[in-house]
Amino acid sequence: MYDVIIVGAGPAGSTAALYAHRLGLNCILLDKAVFPRDKICGDALSGKSVRLMRELNLLEGVEELEGSEINRITFGSPSHSQFDVHLKGNKNNDYITKGYVVPRKIFDNFLFKKADELTETRQGFMVNDIIYQNDNISGVKGTNIEGKEEILNAPVIMGCDGANSIIARKLGLYEMDMENTAVAIRCYYEGVEGLSNQIELHYVSEVKPGYFWLFPAGNGKANIGIGLSKNDAKKEDRTLRQIMDEIVQSDYFRSRFGNARPLEKPVGWNLPLGRIQRKNHGNGFMLLGDAAGLVDPFTGEGIGNAMVAAKHAMQVASKAKNHKDYSERSFSEYDQLLWDDIGGELRTSTKLQSLARSSFLLNFVINRAARNEEVQSIISGMLSHEIPKDELSSPMFYLKILLS
Ligand SMILES: Cc1cc2nc3c(=O)[nH]c(=O)nc-3n(C[C@H](O)[C@H](O)[C@H](O)COP(=O)(O)OP(=O)(O)OC[C@H]3O[C@@H](n4cnc5c(N)ncnc54)[C@H](O)[C@@H]3O)c2cc1C
């Protein structure tokens, strides 16, 4: 009998296991995959992820991983003006001074290994059902690495099993609606010119509303990709691969890809966006990370929010154990803490995602920022300080830009 069963060992699950250890909870971490395993992603670890890794004393380890250190973010507009936000050496920037791009095959393996040092884990364990005793959750049923069915018991289950969460499905909370889900493709390349310590987000007209990313993934490799809302992707008569080819071969990018070679066929996956507040708890369970639909609608980042969710969920699980109260009411505190923490930012990002539909606005802001240090510094302050991006969606921000 464990205190908590964590289903899925991506960033949400492995982080949850690390917090469980800190709180003295006896948990087991399960994943259907055997690590190291790939996860389709842009591989960028920014503000929030860095903050939590620091809190968990993981940063030194992350710095040693194959990947790139990031201290600059480049924003490109539909008309191809661009500006850089420097994460280092900026007066507004005394908090987050760097980010990282680490291929998920490496990063998730690192996190999983850290969790494995401290808690019980099972790889190759495919959870396929939830089990109940007297209407209360009492564990999960799954197929272990030897192909045998096994039952594990705990009064609390954490669904950290990603965008297609079996736990969310079994509990009737799975939502994959077109409006609140995005789809993105990734492709690793080698030989792309002009990679350095910056991540690049280009709001190009070929993929509207969405962006083309170009990240240095370490060892001379690049992680490139594009993402669109499911609704917008459905309206397209081009596939995402065709759109990405168009961008790579466009006048603006062609020279950088002259000697480049894709290292794989582009691969895609869904991103459940945090555009709406979902219910992510109930009698004996909580949903975390992509299973809870926490991806930032504007930036497409989900690792940081998955890690934040892990911290809150484990604190609530610890309280539940102390009070021997595994009721829905007890776990409602999780949704409350989570939304108090990231709800404001998700709401702002939802507004920004809508604003980014306008090429005019994107050109306006990015052109101004390219020419004006004050605007650069406002945006840089917002990104590095992690202050709510609210200002970005307020009319005052645009007035300030107009007057600057
Ligand atoms: C193309 C793309 C680009 C992205 N770029 C970025 C980025 O640059 N930065 C960023 O922060 N975010 C990015 N994201 C989002 C990010 O990948 C996710 O938000 C993040 O992986 C969520 O972590 P998670 O732990 O919730 O789920 P996952 O990372 O999906 O992990 C879920 C785990 O559950 C396991 N699992 C699933 N089903 C079962 C089962 N039945 N039994 C046992 N185990 C199971 C899986 O094997 C997996 O290991 C991107 C997403 C996509 C698709």
Give me a quick take on this structure.
By secondary structure, the protein is α+β, with helices and mostly antiparallel strands. The protein has helices at residues 11-22, 47-55, 59-63, 104-118, 166-170, 230-235, 240-248, 303-323, 328-355, 359-371, 373-385, 395-403, and strands at 4-7, 27-30, 44-45, 68-70, 72-76, 82-86, 99-101, 120-122, 126-133, 136-143, 149-153, 156-159, 181-190, 198-202, 211-218, 221-229, 261-262, 267-272, 281-282, 285-287. It has a domain at 4-50 and 100-174 and 273-352: FAD/NAD(P)-binding domain (3-Layer(bba) Sandwich), CATH 3.50.50.
Describe this structure in words.
By secondary structure, the chain is an alpha+beta fold. It has a domain at 4-50 and 100-174 and 273-352: FAD/NAD(P)-binding domain (3-Layer(bba) Sandwich), CATH 3.50.50.60. Helices cover 36% and strands 25% of the residues. The chain has twelve helices and 20 strands. The protein has helices at 11-22, 47-55, 59-63, 104-118, 166-170, 230-235, 240-248, 303-323, 328-355, 359-371, 373-385, 395-403; strands at residues 4-7, 27-30, 44-45, 68-70, 72-76, 82-86, 99-101, 120-122, 126-133, 136-143, 149-153, 156-159, 181-190, 198-202, 211-218, 221-229, 261-262, 267-272, 281-282, 285-287. A hairpin with a 5-residue loop joins β10 and β11 (149-153). α1 packs parallel to α4. It is globular and about 65 Å long. It starts with a strand and ends with a helix. The structure holds flavin-adenine dinucleotide (FAD). Flavin-adenine dinucleotide binds next to α1, β9, β13, β18 and α8.
